[in-house]
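Standup notes
- HV: blocked on the assembly model, inputs below
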Amino acid sequence: EAQVTQNPRYLITVTGKKLTVTCSQNMNHEYMSWYRQDPGLGLRQIYYSMNVEVTDKGDVPEGYKVSRKEKRNFPLILESPSPNQTSLYFCASSLSNRPILTDTQYFGPGTRLTVL
Amino acid sequence: SQQGEEDPQALSIQEGENATMNCSYKTSINNLQWYRQNSGRGLVHLILIRSNEREKHSGRLRVTLDTSKKSSSLLITASRAADTASYFCATGETSGSRLTFGEGTQLTVNP
């Protein structure tokens, strides 16, 4: 089944403890992206990747890192999480690396992160 | 800043009625997409309309785009309780690398 998977789905952690949220897609998509969703603010893009080893900042990249060593994986790393990073996180992918021209984005199920 | 802004923020209707949601944006776009999100879940793509299109249909969905007014509308006809969800518009920058989402419209369809 074609899908985007994220792990973990739920995570409660403490300030300063490094964590990684994994994202994987099995559709051979070029483009991958991370978003966070907060009440009243909609979805905001954190980072995106147009291809392997190519990553770019979105609207809210501060406090996050990403890597794209393989086409299928795009982990989101929080080196020192803080309470303001408590949010619902979504990974998404698109077939081409110019997604807005032709493609839709496929979203993962979300990761609900709480930083105490 | 948010590119797309949906209106209204919340909409409550009865089953069988039509639901109309609007989206306004600020800059030039290549296309505009509508997504649906059931509570706490990932977004699901509904429909894409290109900047050179004015109207598009998909099942019970009808999307219009007015680039002169920088606005779009999503019409769901003959709504069902299962249509209860949040609906987001997303606009694509002309550079082609990013989608920007609005804050969404929460639609409730009462049985």
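- HV (later): unblocked. The mean pLDDT of chain A is 92. The radius of gyration of chain A is 13 Å.
- Next: hand off to the docking folks.
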